[in-house]
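Might I ask for a little of your time on a matter of protein folding? Here, with my thanks, is the record as I have it:
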Amino acid sequence: MTGSIILIGPMGSGKSTIGRLLAARLRLRYVDSDALIVHHTGVDIPTIFEIEGESGFRERERKVIADLATWSEPMVLATGGGAILDPANRHHLRQMGQVIHLDVSVDEQLRRIRHDRNRPLLQGTDLDSRLKTLAEQRNTLYRETAHWRVVGDGLRSDQVLRRILRHLQQRAWHLPAGDSGGQTGAK
């Protein structure tokens, strides 16, 4: 089996970190859809939200994902947490390859992103309540979109990576020679 690997999940679930590690292990290109949006606009995501609102950002996200869906080169793609809100995005992501839902509880999210000030949907709100609301709005869509799920609560990135590599190997994914999903070298 070949194709791209797409990581979806809530903010703080580890999509960017795991995506980079997974791409390096599989010798695939790593792509972050939010980073592409920033690259194309020349401004950070909070600025896009401030100027265009969430709807403007979502339109940019839709265009980036539609473009990525036309790439023939396999990649590891980390998406923004809300990418699954758009039905066209969900369709494109599933067509591109294996979609992995990196799932974490709200408590785990709070632990990981409590001090992150670069997340526009969390500014000026009660963080716990906002994350619970986002989870209620998105969890069903994550599950509908994903081919499979990895729960990351209490796990280090190397542990999540090993779970993903083992799953890919079981699904006859073409791993680099000698890469069985065993030790990652990270402690």
The chain has a mean pLDDT of 86. Residues 36 and 64 are 7 Å apart (CA to CA).
